[in-house]
């Protein structure tokens, strides 16, 4: 297997924690419902590959996300390993009750940086949704759980266009002030570019929120996810969301190039000499296995490239003609 | 059409010249031969979209690149516009004669940073290939032409693995010393990561070759091309090679995710507030038109995403479910 030559870039974090979202963010956007035993095996394989934070499912009402209606059963089936966390999405107190019953250590709530998306996704204003999450976060923290807050539409919004940086910081701070332990900044429609990322992280810093409390969640809709990740690493962020094989993302983009693929992220981190703990070959094999079950190829460049690699290269075979 | 919010990143070039390689590097790797009138229209459309450097074809012997056997006829047909350059690849003095006859302003020669690829691609050692290009460059310069030098395998080589930075600098300097006006550093197999890019550009600088004489040519085989481009921009490089629609690349990778897609590059440059002169909508339309002629979709994320965009978004339509 080809691997990048390791060459660190000064000023980057020494270690990055990958927050794997494939089983939840990936599979919730699948047109077909994946059997619970396949989900459980997927998660077990991701843990085998070295991932230590694997967002497992969502306790959102099955009416909204039928793909994850088996959340309770999945959590029962999961063979939980020491050192691995399996966060679940929780929309309200009833969801929290189910999560507590399932014995999770980390929940995730989800807000929107824009009123348009808050109304459409949560059927509430931004302020109402933060108020709704207040008791969820308080009770979860009292129960000793960690609480991640997702913030959607941090860069652009399909209805509102570019989202002002100060507006994102304001909503993000209110989520952290509820008691959330981590804030994941989502480029839900994938329009961000590296200068925008740098500017948003700078603004959070000025508002007293350092990169140690932030994660980034980029979508590759316009091919920018990894360049944006580099900009975030340069700003000190050390938690990066990604999805094995690039599963999932925004279903309104038929091309299904949604989430940053974990494999593409791992390739870059390895080359940068940043510790991530993931076995790339095992991870790519897992994504190929999942792609077979879903009946279509992974959009991850790395997964595709590793599948195309000849086992042994013949002496005559020329990988590229003439130049390039 | 969605567009990124413009947010400059300090320290980057104000303007980037895109060296469009689709008609040459893209089409030379196509399994089928594209009719010469389609090639001519492709190049005209690229110029319409605002590209000012469009590598048109190659005067390599048709035995090696039958896809471009119509180089002379294509150059005859080309309606050349003021302010647009149409470089052609030239392998030897005979190729130069043909290029001079066709009235080109810029030629490109091509060397290898590794002995393995020099032997396979040029059937010569690195030293022999540089010696062969000597009279080509001298005569071209005497005729008032600009000469670009491509250098392949600048980061990794399928036979030799990681390529030492000093070796790349040494071969690159010898090509520039021949009289070449620009050196394009190629990550032919797509294995580079941003730290490696930064290190190579730093080493060139220490050897007296500043970023003003350098271009970068990244392949997206492992999804790294745009992150690497960002690192190159941060090191001061202001000439970037890319291919409309992501055409071409390395045919040994069946997935055909070869060259960095010009559209993905343009998206990032626009967001960074860097002047590039390209009309993205026209360019993406050209790539879709070409993809129809080739019978398969463009691998460019931006081309795919723009094709998926609804003309008008309904009020109820939710682009992303629940979170992300």
Textual characterization of the structure:
2 copies of one chain form a homodimer. With 324 residues, chain A is α/β, with parallel strands linked by helices. Chain A has one domain: Aldolase class I (TIM Barrel, Alpha-Beta Barrel), CATH 3.20.20. Chain A is built from 12 helices and 11 strands. In chain A, the strands form 2 sheets. Chain A has a 9-stranded parallel beta sheet. Chain A is globular, with a radius of gyration of 19 Å. Chain A starts with 16 loop residues before the first strand and ends in a 16-residue tail after the last helix.
Main attributes?
homodimer; 324 residues; alpha/beta; TIM Barrel; 9-stranded parallel β-sheet; two-stranded antiparallel ribbon; 12 helices; 40% helix; 13% strand; PYR_CT (chains A, B)
Oligomer: homodimer
C-alpha-based Rg of chain A, rounded: 19 Å
Proportion of residues in β-strands of chain A: 5-15%
- How is the main sheet of chain A built? 9 strands, parallel
N-C termini distance of chain A: 21 Å
Can you write the helix and strand succession of chain A as a string? Answer: EHHEEHEHEHHEEEHEHEHEHHH
Strand arrangement, major sheet of chain A: 2-1-11-10-9-6-5-4-3
- CATH topology-level name of chain A: TIM Barrel
- Overall pLDDT of chain A, averaged? 92
Query: Which percent bin holds the helix content of chain A?
Result: 25-40%
Q: Based on the coordinates given, report the CATH architecture of chain A.
A: Alpha-Beta Barrel
CATH superfamily of chain A: Aldolase class I
Would you state the CATH class of chain A? Alpha Beta
Structural class of chain A: alpha/beta
Low-confidence stretches of chain A: 251-256, 311-321
> How many strands in all of chain A?
11
Count of all domains of chain A: 1
Shape of chain A: globular
Largest interface: A-B, 92 and 92 residues
Figure out the total of helices of chain A.
12
């Amino acid at each position: 297997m080809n691997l990048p030559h390791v060459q660190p870039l000064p000023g980057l974090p020494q270690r990055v924690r990958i927050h794997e979202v494939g089983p939840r963010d990936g599979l919730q956007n699948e047109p077909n419902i994946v059997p619970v035993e396949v989900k459980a095996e997927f998660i077990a394989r991701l843990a085998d590959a070295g991932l230590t934070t694997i967002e497992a499912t969502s306790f959102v009402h099955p009416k909204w996300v039928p793909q994850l209606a088996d959340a309770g059963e999945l959590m029962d089936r999961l063979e939980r390993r020491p050192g691995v966390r399996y966060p679940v999405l929780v929309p309200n107190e009833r969801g929290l009750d189910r999560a507590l019953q399932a014995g999770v250590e980390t929940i995730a709530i989800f807000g929107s940086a824009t009123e348009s998306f808050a109304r459409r996704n949560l059927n509430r204003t931004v302020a109402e949704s933060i108020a709704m999450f207040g008791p969820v976060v308080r009770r979860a923290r009292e129960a000793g759980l960690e609480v991640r807050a997702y913030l959607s539409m941090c860069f652009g919004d399909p209805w509102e266009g570019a989202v002002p940086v100060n507006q994102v910081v304001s909503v993000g701070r209110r989520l952290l002030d509820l008691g959330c332990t981590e804030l994941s900044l989502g480029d839900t429609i994938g329009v961000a570019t590296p200068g925008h990322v740098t500017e948003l992280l700078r603004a959070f810093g000025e508002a007293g929120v350092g990169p140690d409390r932030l994660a980034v969640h980029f979508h590759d809709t316009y091919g920018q996810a990894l360049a944006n990740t580099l900009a975030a690493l340069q700003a000190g962020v050390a938690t990066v969301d990604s999805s094995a094989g690039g599963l999932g993302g925004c279903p309104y983009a038929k091309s299904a190039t949604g989430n940053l693929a974990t494999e593409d992220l791992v390739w870059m981190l390895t080359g940068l000499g940043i510790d991530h703990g993931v076995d790339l070959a095992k991870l790519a094999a897992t994504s190929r296995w999942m792609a077979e079950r879903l009946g279509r190829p992974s959009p991850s460049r790395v997964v595709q490239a590793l599948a195309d690699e000849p086992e042994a290269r013949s002496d005559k075979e020329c990988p590229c003609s003439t130049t390039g």
